[in-house]
Amino acid sequence: MRRITAIALAALAALSLGGCELSHKVSGQNGYRGTGMDQVTVKKVAMAKDEVPPPPYDPPSTDGPRAKEQFQNLQVLGDESAEQLSYTMAAMTAWVAPKEGCNYCHNPNNMASDELYTKVVARRMLQMTRNINHNWQSHVAQTGVTCWTCHRGQAVPTNHWTMPPAPPSGIIGNRHGQDDPIAATGFSSLPDASLALYLTGDPKKDQNIRVQATAAHPSSADKTSVMQTENSYAVMIHVSKALGVNCTFCHNAQALGAWPISTPKRAKAWYGIRMVRETNGQYISSLTNAFPAYRKGPMGDPFKVSCATCHQGKNKPMGGYPMAKDYHALWGAPGNATVPATFPAPLQAPTPTQPVASAAPATPAG
């Protein structure tokens, strides 16, 4: 009996060490033998084929009258041809609100009206998409992104995150932002605010994700603490799960912090972190007053994006399929459309089912 119990406990321990990913995995060598440069991939995710909707019809000409000459209150896509505008709107309907149709964002009796908050949000999201494709090719290259990259036919992307709720003011029950397992940190005990630390703010004001100090002892130039490394590990765990990869996808096992021996993908990730930071800080946060309460987190901030929002478990969203190539309107300059400070009450808009709970963001940097 004792032997059976011991075997059972050993098996349980092995399963525990395997974490939550019990699916079949495949591994591939990514460097010289014995260097630890192996990639481990969850097969069912890596091999799964993503649905990529075709264009609504053959892409129209970019010539002809400009959209701003034929439509009212056109603040973003006015530089495109009128035919390109209609084509892009048809695609957006399929990407974001296939069941609701055009009325999800528009008043059918007054298409120029901004009375629905969803139209104001969609306009800002168009600016965001154009900004990513136009200014962040260091990350998205010529593949680009569309609304489908994140939304996949849903009004609210499945993978999003918000600021964690404030902890209790007293000692009892106050976990200081840790020991509260969430998907964003791989259900670990690491800090739950790491995404807020690294994926919001100004991308030009650096907030490097560092674990290793640059010297053996603390100094005025080296103040990296053990507590800071926990945030770094938390965000790296998120990146790993969001892209379906392990550390050696970007880093060299010989020295994780050394740029000269890192893989080229680390540079892509460096830009990706800053792209997400700008997307959350400049585009999504500016819509705080536009969103209703049921599309905000416990701290009143709108749902934000992360690596998982686009990647969804793959190192290239949708396996790298370049669907943005068919949509000329999504590659232009972002434009200067602004978000109103206040909205008429009540905001009359479609009421979808309560959105799914958050999943979160991040990416390696140095």
Order of strands, widest sheet: 1-2
Give the DSSP E fraction (strand runs of 2 or more residues).
under 5%
Beginning-to-end CA distance, first to last residue: 53 Å
Pairing-aware structural class of the strands and helices?
mainly alpha
* Average pLDDT over all residues: 83
Order of helices and strands: HEEHHHHHHHHHH
Number of contiguous helices: 11
Which value, in Å, is the CA radius of gyration?
A: 23 Å
Overall geometry comes to globular
Query: Which runs of at least 5 residues are low in confidence (pLDDT < 50)?
Result: 343-366
Total number of strands: 2
Residue share in helix: 25-40%
Largest sheet: 2 strands, antiparallel
Protein described:
This protein has 366 residues and is mainly α. 32% of the residues lie in helices and 3% in strands. It has 11 helices and 2 strands; from the N terminus they run H-E-E-H-H-H-H-H-H-H-H-H-H. The chain has a two-stranded antiparallel sheet with strand order 1-2. A hairpin with an 8-residue loop joins strand 1 and strand 2. The longest helix has 21 residues, at 264-284. The chain is globular. The model is unreliable at 343-366 (pLDDT under 50).
